[in-house]
Amino acid sequence: MKNLLIPILIGLMSILYIFIIPQEPLAMKIVFKLIPMALIIIYAFRKLPASPSPALRLVIMGLFFCMLGDGFIAVSFVAGLGAFLVGHLFYLTGFLKMSQITKLRLASIIPIGLYSLLIGRQLIVSLAAEGNDTLVMPVIAYMLVISIMALSAILTGSKLAIAGSLLFVISDSILSWNMFVSDVVYSDVFIMTTYYSAQFLIASSLTSFGESAGDIVTIPDVKQQL
Questions:
Q1: pTM for this entry
Q2: CB 73 within 8 Å of CB 61
Q3: What distance in Å separates the CA atoms of residue 171 and residue 159, rounded to the nearest whole number?
Q4: Each residue of 52-98: pLDDT tens digit?
Q5: Nearest alpha-carbon partner for 151 in 220, 193, 99, 204
Q6: Degrees (nearest 5) of the Cα angle 90, 126, 180?
Q7: CB 58 within 8 A of CB 90
Q8: Residue 66 and residue 122 in contact, taking contact as beta carbons nearer than 8 Å
Q9: DSSP, residue by residue, the chain
Q10: Long-range pairs, 6-15, Cβ under 8 A, ≥24
Q11: What would the pLDDT profile of 163-215 be if each residue is shown by its tens digit?
């Protein structure tokens, strides 16, 4: 039961933020939005081995910058986007250090690329139509980085990391579609439910990574698996 305490708190605080906390005052809304992420970071630290590798520390940094993004995006979309972008860079760097490359995993670049192309094309068209040309390049950069992050998670072979990264992509897709293309029914619920689930799964994956024999795939290993 002790091991379930923080996950239960994460679930309860997430439900509280998503379904109960009002939109105003904004400061209170932001505080309650950050509480689940703060708990997820605490949970992630508890999942680390006694001597965590640099790769695991990078994933923790990714969680931290995403939490910053949660706060920033409530007052500035660009600032929030920037913080999340940095968070994903930490994630993908950490995941790449723990990757185990196979042909099947590499093949996932095709569906990820197609999905990003379809969503990205519609976003760019909508942004241009609304006269938001200044957001086109930041949005393209973000979509590129989050797509590579999802691919890097798949290359690790960790089911938890893969599920978390894909949920992150889904969450951001709903957010961007709702903001720039057309309204999504119950968008807030879908965005935050998938988002908190994504971060929790990524944090949970640290245990399996900590138990792995090594963090960095050597070139001979890659050739053997290919």
A1: 0.89
A2: no
A3: 18
A4: 899 999 999 999 999 999 999 999 988 999 999 999 999 999 999 99
A5: 99
A6: 60
A7: yes
A8: no
A9: -GGGHHHHHHHHHHHIIIIIS-S-SHHHHHHHHHHHHHHHHHHHHHHS-SS--HHHHHHHHHHHHHHHHHHHTTT-HHHHHHHHHHHHHHHHHHHHHT----HHHHHTHHHHHHHHHHHHHHHHHHHHHTT-GGGHHHHHHHHHHHHHHHHHHHHHT-HHHHHHHHHHHHHHHHHHHHHHT---TTHHHHHHHHHHHHHHHHHHTHHHHHTSS-SS--HHHHHHH-
A10: 6/39, 6/42, 6/43, 6/46, 7/43, 7/200, 9/39, 10/36, 10/39, 10/40, 10/43, 10/196, 10/200, 13/39, 14/192, 14/193, 14/196
A11: 999 999 999 999 999 999 999 999 999 999 999 999 999 999 998 876 654 44
pLDDT digits (tens, 9 = 90+) for 126-141: 998 888 888 899 989 9
Which residue shows structure tokens 């569906």? 111
Tokens 């720039």 belong to 180
In this predicted structure, the answer to whether residue 221 has a pLDDT above a threshold of 80 is: no
- CA–CA separation, 81 vs 38, rounded Å? 19
126 half-sphere exposure, CB direction, 13 A CA radius: 15
CB 200 within 8 A of CB 171: no
